[in-house]
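Key result, reporting period 2: structure in, sequence out.
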């Protein structure tokens, strides 16, 4: 056109620029720059249409500085210009700036249209900015902007992610028909608050569910510690012939990790491979974590070794896995290897390493790593790191050093450090210091059920029953109840769950008969119940009965009853296992010739021939 000597005017340029913006992948930017030069030459540079279109080309090409410069130079900015720049910031993930720019726009007297309103609501959703979100809502109401389903969904999504579920639900109730975006937001919102029943009832009412909605519900279950439900739903989704994506897989893998069920873990791994996700970094990292939590370090290692590309998360997951299984020195070896490959450790890596040291009693190495973290790797220690160190020192009976460390912290100690110290006091029966730690902990978090339980354990151990009663009364008064102990065992791919004292299993009679037989056999070799962890002052018989029916013992009796003779028995427990159960299972591994893997709240115990991998150090 220019070669034909047709003159370019301020009407043709914006059109040309808009076309360029759509073609940024095939030379659009170059054309845009040429047009920009031409505009300057021809004196159209400050034409608002030309400027808006120019900003649009640069924005589409991701040229942040250029777009912003053109925009700043504009003397007159209309709603279209604002839309371009706001959308640009939003798409670039700069949500706070988007909201700030929107404020500028309002003060310049330009009224937003529906598209801008949805963009800003979405930005508020990302940043959790309820104040601006609410202000926009009242603006909509005041200025009679019609609330179509698009705006309504944006409002619902914003309220959901700002945890204002009541308002969100009100808007959702008035929505007819309910669309998928809004329904998914509601499911997400309720799941995040742990209100799974409401989330599920919304989910159930949607007839045509898409992958995003299914995934929202599945990840909701996975994150609210309802892994069985997550897996069940995943199976239902597969039955609908929907293909899972990366996010779905990550949720399901995390559910398997939570469950600690190795057969299920292997199944999902096969499924990941057959769907072509075996080279995805985040999936492989999740698989390492899953196998470690399902008790198979060797499978975790296989995944780790096969990975072509590893990042700091891959290394950290593997090290944490070693730590969980009491293989502290292997974690340290891996750390050396990682350093040699040039991958920089981060704060999480050191949490894993210090945790590994603490669970293997590697005091000197722990001290050395803590120093290296600060001085060599320039990582500021956080509560988690101090907590691990206090734990490490406390377990090694270096309580004085632990207290000195707490005193040296640059910030006031929180529940992590006091909790670790309290745990140490329980292990060593230190009543005075335990009381102090518990007091501090409860000042910070009066509803900390763990603190009450640990404190009463300390009193019970010292036979101070009046004090145990006092703590129990305190707990009752505050309506705090100890989480009930429960254990899972997987037999032929099926999970069986047992609560403490459980008699609900169809084979309950046989199980309890078996349990009593086991006690007899163990007692013949010198076992006697350790009732120190019973929190009530009962008669001796009753206290013995109380520990006998701990869920992991019931699960073990069931395992011995139904599993293939000689096979490894794997049990997962939701709480920390007590001393009595630990020696019970340890002895059972020898008497019944079984390898038993027990995962409790904090770590793994591998029992074999009357020994445990934790060396009674947990
Ligand atoms: Zn127990
Ligand atoms: Zn152990």
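The corresponding designed sequence is given below.
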């Amino acid at each position: 056109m220019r070669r034909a000597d047709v003159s370019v005017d301020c009407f043709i340029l914006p059109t040309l620029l808009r076309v360029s913006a759509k073609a940024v992948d095939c030379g659009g930017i170059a054309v845009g720059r040429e047009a920009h030069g031409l505009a300057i030459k021809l004196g159209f540079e400050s034409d608002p249409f030309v400027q808006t279109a120019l900003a649009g080309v640069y924005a589409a090409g991701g040229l942040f500085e250029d777009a912003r410069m053109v925009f700043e130079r504009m003397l007159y900015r209309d709603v279209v210009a604002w839309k371009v720049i706001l959308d640009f910031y939003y798409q670039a993930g700069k949500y706070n700036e988007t909201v700030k720019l929107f404020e500028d726009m309002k003060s310049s007297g330009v009224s937003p249209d529906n598209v801008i309103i949805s963009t800003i609501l979405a930005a508020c959703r990302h940043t959790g900015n309820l104040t601006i979100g609410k202000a926009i809502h009242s603006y909509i109401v005041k200025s009679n902007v019609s609330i179509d389903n698009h705006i309504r969904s944006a409002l619902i999504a914003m309220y959901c992610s700002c945890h204002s579920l009541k308002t969100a639900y009100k808007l959702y109730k008035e929505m007819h028909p309910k669309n998928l975006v809004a329904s998914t937001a509601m499911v997400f919102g309720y799941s995040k608050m742990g209100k799974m029943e409401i989330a599920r009832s919304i989910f159930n009412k949607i007839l045509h569910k898409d992958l995003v909605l299914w995934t929202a519900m599945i990840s909701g279950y996975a994150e609210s510690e309802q892994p069985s439900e997550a897996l069940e739903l995943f199976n239902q989704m597969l039955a609908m012939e929907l293909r899972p994506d990366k996010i779905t897989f990550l949720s399901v893998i995390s559910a398997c990790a939570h469950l600690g069920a190795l057969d299920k873990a292997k199944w999902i791994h096969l499924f990941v491979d057959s769907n072509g996700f075996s080279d995805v970094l985040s999936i492989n990292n999740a698989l390492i974590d899953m196998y470690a939590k399902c008790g198979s370090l060797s499978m975790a290692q296989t995944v780790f070794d096969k990975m072509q590309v590893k990042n700091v998360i891959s290394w950290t997951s593997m090290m944490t896995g070693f730590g969980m299984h009491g293989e502290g020195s292997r974690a340290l070896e891996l750390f050396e290897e990682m350093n040699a490959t040039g991958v920089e450790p981060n704060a999480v890596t050191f949490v894993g390493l210090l945790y590994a040291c603490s669970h293997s009693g590697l005091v000197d190495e722990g001290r050395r790593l803590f120093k290296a973290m600060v001085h060599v790797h320039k990582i500021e220690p956080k509560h988690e790191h101090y907590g691990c160190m206090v734990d490490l020192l406390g377990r090694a009976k270096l309580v004085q050093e632990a207290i000195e460390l707490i005193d040296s912290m640059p910030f006031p100690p929180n529940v992590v450090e006091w909790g670790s110290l309290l745990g140490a006091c329980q292990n060593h029966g230190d009543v005075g210091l335990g009381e102090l730690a518990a007091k501090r902990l409860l000042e910070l978090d009066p509803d900390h059920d763990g603190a009450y339980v640990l404190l009463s354990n300390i009193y019970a151990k010292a036979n101070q029953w009046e004090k145990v009663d006092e703590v129990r009364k305190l707990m009752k008064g505050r309506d705090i109840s100890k989480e009930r102990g429960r254990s899972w065992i997987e037999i032929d791919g099926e999970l069986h769950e047992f609560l403490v004292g459980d008699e609900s299993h169809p084979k309950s009679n046989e199980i309890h008969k078996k349990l009593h037989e086991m006690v007899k056999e163990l007692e013949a070799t010198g076992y006697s119940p350790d009732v120190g962890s019973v929190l009530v002052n009962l008669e001796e018989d009753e206290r013995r009965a109380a520990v006998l029916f701990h869920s992991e013992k019931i699960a073990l009796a069931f395992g011995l009853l139904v599993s293939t003779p000689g096979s490894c028995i794997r049990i997962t427990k939701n709480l920390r296992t007590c001393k009595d159960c630990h020696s019970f299972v340890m002895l059972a591994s020898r008497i019944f010739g079984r390898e038993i893997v027990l995962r409790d709240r904090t770590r793994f115990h591998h029992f074999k021939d009357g020994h445990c991998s934790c060396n009674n150090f947990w």
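The domain at 12-161 is CATH 1.25.40.10 (Serine Threonine Protein Phosphatase 5, Tetratricopeptide repeat). The radius of gyration is 30 Å. This case is discussed further under Risks and Mitigation.
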